[in-house]
Structure prediction request, 221 residues.
Amino acid sequence: MAVDYTFQNHVNVYPEIGEPGGYASVNPIISTPLGYIAKAACPVGGFVWEDTTYAGQVNPSGSGQPLGFVVREQNVPLNANASYTNQVPAGGVVTVAVEGDFFGCPSADSTKGQKVFVNTTNGTFKGGTAGASVDSHVETNWVFATSADAGEVAIISNFGQRNVVVAAEAIDLSSYETSAHAAETYSTIANTVTAVVAGTAAHTIKVTKNGEDSTVEIPQE
Prediction:
């Protein structure tokens, strides 16, 4: 049964699989090093983008890869006189995870193994084939660990994947390499290059900027 955040009006026979935004495993969770507040209301169990004007603020819409996934935490205020919307209101504290296993509700029927495509207008997500082009959605390094119908609870994960962001003014992507193996994907968005590396081996990312080399070391997990 789909998650219902109105006042209780029925009793389920079986317990819910999980709550959107909740932790779905005991695997390590990686969150952003900086704290954020919501510039606009952000969906718990959805994705957000860092605001391009005000540092430390996030939006449920944006372009390119989202900053991360909004985790269900107790810092979300509850209004005792209204139905719970499962949103962080504007001005509220947002806990943003960049790696882990979480519960969430896809906006369309999705299948285990599909990539997570995030809607760039509202932060919702659904499954799709890797490499596909989906209107108003961006493909991420998250995948569906379980199947779910639209509005039902699924587990999504990017555990073992990592987005590495390096300053990228005038970057020559032909100079991009890793010491272990090539990155699965990389792209330039808003003066950054984002590389998605797989596995637990140590990596060295080399970037040439304006004729000078710089590296980022990723230790072995």
